[in-house]
Amino acid sequence: MTTPGSPSSRRVALRGVLPWLAPLGTVLLWQLASRLGWLPGRLLPAPLAILGAGIEGLRHQHLLLHLAVSCGRALAGTVIGTSIGLMLGLLTGLSRPMQLVLDGPLQMMRAVPALALVPLVILWFGLGETAKIFIVVITVVFPVYLNTFHGVRSVDPQLLEMARVYDLRGIALYRHVILPGAMPSVLVGLRFALGMSWLVIIVAETLGASSGLGYLAATAREFMQMDTLVLTIVLWALLGKAADLLARRLERWLLPWQPAAQRLSVE
Amino acid sequence: MSGIGTTSCGASVHFERLDKSFGDRHVLRDIELQIEPGQFVAIVGRSGSGKSTLLRLLCGLEEPSAGALRVLNASGSDARSGVRVVFQEPRLLPWKTIIDNVCIGGKRPDRERARRVLAAVGLTDRANEYPGVLSGGQRQRVALARALMHEPSVMLLDEPFGALDALTRIEAQRLVEQLWLEHRFTALLVTHDVSEAVLLADRVLLIDEGRIAESFEVNVPRAERRGSPELAKIAAAVLDRIFDASSANAAGSSTNAPAQLSISDKAAVAGV
Prior knowledge:
The complex is a heterodimer.
Chain A: H1 7-35, H2 47-60, H3 63-94, H4 96-110, H5 118-125, H6 129-153, H7 157-165, H8 170-207, H9 213-222, H10 226-254
Helix pairs in contact in A: 2-10, 3-4, 3-6, 3-8, 3-9, 5-6, 6-8, 8-9, 8-10, 9-10
Chain B: E1 12-22, E2 25-35, E3 40-44, H1 51-58, E4 66-72, E5 83-86, H2 98-102, H3 111-120, H4 136-148, E6 154-158, H5 166-183, E7 186-190, H6 194-200, E8 203-208, E9 211-217, H7 229-249, H8 256-270
Parallel strand pairs in B: 3-7, 3-8, 5-6, 6-7
Antiparallel strand pairs in B: 1-2, 1-4, 8-9
């Protein structure tokens, strides 16, 4: 019902613009500072130089390939880790004995940072794909496990009572009540896991790899290619944002019943 | 009427010397109660008198500590599987659409019937929406539809109107009465609102300190109930009995002050 120029349509337009204001302003200032010589290119290359490195990378250095390799590793690790975390969380959430057996060791393992395992993992699996995916899996399992466990335990007891009266048992109870009830919490874990997986894959690639964004950053450092190095960092930020968008999509797809206001992400 | 198309018949309910205690706290003592098939019984009493526990026993959420509890259909066989509950809160699954909520618990969901049941509570056009967008009164109507879905022999209503505003409440009361008249299930309504109890029930049971203290027959024809002075008289009698019971329990208090208090309480509770 809004005509262009009316207060509400202006507000909508403003809301579309506002999130871009800070990043764009920063880039403009940065470019200006480089141009005026306040920022020596040796320390921090100008945005346009980084863009140039990006185009160059696309043309000659298989930038897209490295990107795809990193994404593939992160995704594979996340899928495997999420499946394991979900299974463990359901097991301990639903069965008291299972909780007693598994929760203690899992909490202990959670305290070990996945990156501390990198040397060990390299000795086990070498520098191949398995090692990197393994590191991501280890990172993803715990947040998904913890949030699934919490989600299963916090399903509204009133709904469980209702389900009992309406004769929902066994598999039907899990399918219709417990799993969907735990799902919002599982997604919180998954969202966290996606961010973490991105972090560890890059670090793992920096420590030893022959492809991927982390490898690109490591070689750029070796050859003092400042623009390529900063480019990898910018790409990292953009991909982090993409992972966030993916999580938001998943949320909308898996929780269509949740009013937007209840969702974690700001629309 | 819309007609859900059932010939469901109420079951009879029998409590035989039933006791229920949690630890060393006796909630219900020596309950002896027969309810005829298709009767509408209201249970009133102060909070903590054990009236909700009575319903929880009937729907299998609690087990009796002693005595027996039977729900029998016309041929005398067990009909406990036909007991359905409407709780004080709607307790709908927020992740299921209205129609899927109504279908819950059935072996093979009969969506055609679910639609008819939804029509009976006036919510056909909301079938594919989620409970989150409905008002409190509408959600409670969905809960009613869910209870009606599987041809209940006994319908338990645990203060189902408690959380509704005054107008929605009147609407919901009418709806329940109308559905009951149509389907003739046995109805047990737990409420702390005496005027609601006498308005809807054939019989009002007063529970006090875990015992059935008294039973009141409501013989006013249903069509004439709203605003009937006779009904108000029965409500007043029930209230008198509630306050008698509580003052009898308060040992040795015979001053004027509590009596004064009970009159104003009475007016407030009866809403007359």
